[in-house]
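New to this. Explain these tokens.
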Amino acid sequence: MNTTPQRDEERVLELLQAVERRSDVTQRHLARQMGVALGLANSYLKRCIRKGLIKISEAPANRYLYYLTPKGFSEKSRLTAKYLAASFAFYRSAGESCARALKECEARGQQRVLLCGVSDLAEVAALRALEMDIDIVGVFDPRTERRRFLGKPVWRNLSEALPFDVCLLTDTQADRGVYEQLLQTFGNNGVKVPDILRL
């Protein structure tokens, strides 16, 4: 769901935070922290140095020390505030979207809900379900290795799932094909999609 500029800013923020925590950080460590290839981490580091966000100095044994400049501290603060604002906006929108979907389930008498997809959206849906007469029976997600999520069982195979009345799509990476597969399996009344997913 992230756009490229958003992901770019998130990576810069991750880099600035890593350098602030530890000035003797290696580029390999930065790459691991950011979840990117070594070359991409190096590219972000060079860009931050060019922009004056990070200062570099040589240390013994062919090592480098990285420091945030005042401009780097300022940029880290700005990006942190922007990230938090976007996160709060997502949770607010997701909460409203999940509440609408769950209210429709509740109105139909569909009280046992299976979440489809381990995600932030699944967490939001589970929290909103607490406000209603809805029981989240567990989560179906064939791609996860998790066995439990939010105190509920996670199944990789639908045949293992507890009985449920409706499945609520909470996979934020799902495309139209995933939705159509669920429709073929459970029919129109057996699948609910929060409108935040725009499927």
Summary: The chain has two domains: 4-68, 94-197.
